[in-house]
Design goal:
Helix content is 22%, strand content 30%. Helix 1 (45-53) crosses helix 9 (326-334) and helix 3 crosses helix 4. With 350 residues, it is an alpha/beta fold. Keywords: Metal-binding, Oxidoreductase, Zinc.
Length: 350
């Protein structure tokens, strides 16, 4: 049993190129909340963006923000009225919580990821911001807690969130069983898409990227074949289902060309919000279905089932740092020459 101290450390971004390990008061769980002793956190692109630019997408820092929306740990205390959970239980967290009445139009029934106003851990989209989980302790609404299956570590559990993103993307495509799949862009999400496609029964998974180290991770995560675009290798042709995970507008023309006539292209990588040239003619002449994929709904539960079934996410992890070296961890995660995939922070250790 942990001894609860009145203070804790947290990874806080104060502005562009200004991240600090600050001391803050340990939070106390209110009614309906759980106090989580956070053990592991995974650094995501949005964490890097807040650190490098003071903004992620359209969300800009108005005041300091605790980073992190990929995290897991153990329950340290329960607020009043919380039942069905026990102190010491290993858990992860669904980081999204709709703001408002939660009612969606009928055409969006069940697609809470498309709710217009959502608080997300580690996000500056609202003022006050929504602090993330890169701290030794974090209070969480009990309905956002997800217990880990037996045999799944908290380090693996911290990656349930990005695996859920990948599973949501795979779910946006037609049935994959027996099909050939291409994943373009093999950062952490792309590599997890390769693993999720394999888990969902894809017959053959091809991974393409400019980075040999990223391709090695994708191979370890389940890709049958890799294409090193930096070495002049091209994308395959006539692929049934293509997942574009690079978010690079220049990739759109080539991935549309790689998609089979009548095939499906799922856009997983975030495209810029500004105008960018792209060759899109094949979208029409090849009658390609182009589908967007954004975050996830409840696929974090599917991710935990997959982890419990033995889907191994550990090849994704290339670096581990203690909390006090968070600045160094962010620098490694942001450096394209560092050979990193998923960089993990050890946030609380007995």
């Amino acid at each position: 049993m942990r001894t609860l101290t009145p203070w804790m450390r947290a990874v806080v971004v104060h502005g562009p190129d200004d991240v600090r390990v600050d001391e803050r008061a340990r939070p106390v769980p209110a009614a309906g909340e759980v106090l989580l002793a956070v053990e592991w956190g995974g650094i995501c692109g949005s964490d890097i963006a807040y650190w490098k630019k003071g903004a992620s997408g359209t969300a800009s820092l108005a005041h300091p923000l605790v980073l992190g929306h990929e995290f897991a740990g153990r329950i340290a205390a329960l607020g009043d009225g919380v039942t069905g959970l026990d102190v010491g239980r290993a858990v992860t967290v669904h980081p999204a919580r709709p703001v408002g009445d939660g009612v969606l139009p009928e055409r969006l029934a069940g697609r809470t990821n498309l709710y217009p106003r959502v608080r997300y851990f580690g996000s500056a989209a609202f003022d006050p911001h929504t602090d993330g989980g890169f701290s030794e302790y974090r209070t969480v609404h009990a309905d956002q807690i997800r217990p880990l299956p037996p045999g799944v570590s908290t380090e693996q559990g911290a990656l349930a969130e990005p695996l859920a993103v990948a599973l949501h993307a795979v779910g946006r495509a037609p049935e994959l069983r027996g099909r050939t799949v291409l994943v373009n862009g093999c950062g952490p999400i792309g590599s997890l898409v390769a693993a999720a496609a394999r888990y969902r029964g894809a017959g053959r998974v091809i991974a393409a990227d400019l980075s040999p180290s990223s391709l090695s991770v994708a191979r370890a995560m389940g890709a049958d074949e890799i294409r090193d675009l930096s070495a002049g290798e091209g994308l395959p042709e006539d692929v049934d289902v293509v997942f574009e995970a690079s978010g690079a507008p220049a990739a759109l023309g080539p991935v549309l060309r790689a998609t089979a006539r009548g095939g499906t292209l799922v856009q997983v990588g975030n495209l810029p919000g500004t105008a960018a040239p792209a060759a899109l003619g094949d979208l029409v002449t090849r009658e390609i279905t182009w589908i967007g994929s954004y975050r996830f709904v409840e696929e974090i539960d599917d991710a935990l089932r997959a982890l419990g079934d033995g889907l191994d996410v550990t090849p994704l992890i290339t670096h581990r740092f203690p909390l006090e070296r968070a600045g160094e961890a962010l620098a490694v995660a942001a450096d394209p020459t560092a050979g990193s995939s998923k960089v993990m922070l050890r946030l609380h250790a007995d």
